[in-house]
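Field guide to reading this record: the first block holds the primary sequence, the second block holds the structure written as discrete tokens, and the final block holds curator observations. Each block starts with its own label. This record concerns starch synthase, catalogued under organism Phoenix dactylifera.

BLOCK 1 — SEQUENCE
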Amino acid sequence: MEALGNAAAAMAFPFRLLHTPAPGRRNLRDRVCFCAGKDDDAANLFAGPSQIKLEGHNVDILEESFAPSERRLEMSDTDIWKLFNDAQRNIVYLNKQRLAAVEELKKLQREKELLLGRIEQLEAGKQMNVVEGTVTKPMLLSSFSELLLRIDSMVLLGMIGTSEASDIRKKVMDRKDNIPDVFHDIQQKTDMELLSELRQFSEKTMRKALHIVHICSEMEPVVSFGSLASCVTGLSCALQRDGNLVEVILPKYANMDLDAIQGLRKAEAEFDSYFSGRWHKNRVWIGVAGGLGLTLIEPVYHSSFFNRDRIYGYSDDFERFTYFSRASMDYLVKSGKQPDILHIHNWETAIIGPLFWDIFVHQGLGGTRVLFTCHDLSSQCLEQPDKLGLCGLDPHRLHRPDRLQDNNKTHLVNILKGGIVYSNKVVMMSSVLSKERIIHSLSHGLEPTLAIHKEKLLIAPYGFDGTKWDPSRDKLLPANYSADDIGGKAVCKVALRQRLGFSGCSSAIVGCIFSGVIDIDVDNLKPAIQHALRKGVQCIFMGLKTPVRSTTMQALQEELKDVNMRFVNKYDEALLHLILAGSDIILCSSFDDPLFQIPLKAIKYGSSPISLDIRNGGFRQFEGHDFRSISRKEGFRQSERHDFGSLMSTQYIISTFGKMSLYQALDEINNDPSRWTWRMKDGMSKDFSWDAECLDIHWAAYTFIKNL
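BLOCK 2 — STRUCTURE
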């Protein structure tokens, strides 16, 4: 009977109590309690201080404090029902939370299935060829699919929100044909690296694409004499990867590498060009070099102008390149092209400045603007004023102090000066020189002109091909490595020792790279190398393009005979890559290396560049300068002030390596290896390619003058 009574009571007031154990409290956790009988019995059940927790809920409900057992208080039915209703409300709340969690779990499961599906698509894309007409595009599908997959992964990891991811996906979809060119080795990049590139890509899609035409005398790999050729090709490819249309116009030289031009064909139509008071015929050759549209202009009547052994160095250079400049402008008008920017280079095409504003701006080129890049102010081309009439210009109008009249030899005209005066912006190419130093110390008589036009003068650094000079994807290395994983550099160091026949190991390897243009100062170099050899360092000397044949170098080789010294007297492309990768230090004849950019490449390969530039005393001439940095995000007003210290590449090189000697570098390697490793990784994470700061400065200049 007692059992039946208890059962009936349980049916009347069932609820569960979860009790949190505490000192001096009863443990009633997860125990079913039944309220039955008289009110006194209920009071006994809850006698003493305790805390009630409803099952499955993470919020404690504090119970009323009860008096000691000798003071028995009565609990009414209303109180019991109140507790019961509270428990029911909490149970309902918990059920809602459970349902929400289940829905979230289902959502994650759907996203997981979507990711798995895309992975399957990616794998399938790698195995198949997607054909559009006669063009096969397996790489496009693979890169595009993997990029979308990585974006989804970033969302799941919480790196970006769904709104930003949606915007990036849309911009990727809009420019999917450019994905293989813009994003290289997606699988090798960390999420943070790829996200940074995606955000820059997203910003750049907001830009209006420009049509840019370079008119110049050199271009890699077709014809190359100096730094101009690599600059034209490197910058142009970077601009094209950025979504712009870029074309190059060159003279058709007899000794140019025509095999480097794809699809080269002679245009059927000929066009006339004004020269020497007459119109003369020209032929046009059209092709593609380095992925860029290329036009070659071949004179018919003046065929000897460019049918020579050398590019420069003839007494009629003014006539040759003035003819080419006028012919290039006539070609643009005859072909109906209306580029946004005419980009001209050095004195050879500087005459296009006055030609454009005096003649061609009125022939359908009213929306075009002119940017002039100068690589060397020492080469200016001074001529008699009446020679300007050869291409249709008025000598009397231009032979004035504020136009083409030379500042020193006033009876002559200065062609380079004309490019500065008649261009909307002027860019000086230098990785280490300041605007003030160029104007006041390296102007070669043009200081008054540069001072007047100072506001339109910019400094831009040289760069290098980031697709070729990158240890993370360099095919000439035995092992690849990056700032995130530098293990492969040790493999390259072993391979370099084996290639050069070094025995054993050493504390460091020092590579000495010289261009052959600047002779080596033995007085500075000899004691530095002797010190390194005494420290057990292994040293390699190598010349670039030309063998190291100077008498001073031969004498040094005889004097410093050592088992840990090697001289390489021939240029070897693969060995150069290995020296950059396997060395700890690269000795450079100068940090100012416009032709080969060895200092910047050394930094990218984790090898510290140390300068032995005796002409400028290393970098002592920069002491006292204010190394202020200007953010690349601050817009063109700031980039107009690009001066010494404001270029990212300049500031980094000077602040990190400008005052470091070979002695100090070896000391840090031996005594503070953790700092050395940090320095190496920090440099490798920087981007000094054409696609970085050089592109940013030129793009800012283009957009600024286009809006004039």
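BLOCK 3 — OBSERVATIONS
The chain has 25 helices and 23 strands.
The chain has four domains: 2-97, 128-204, 211-460, 487-704.
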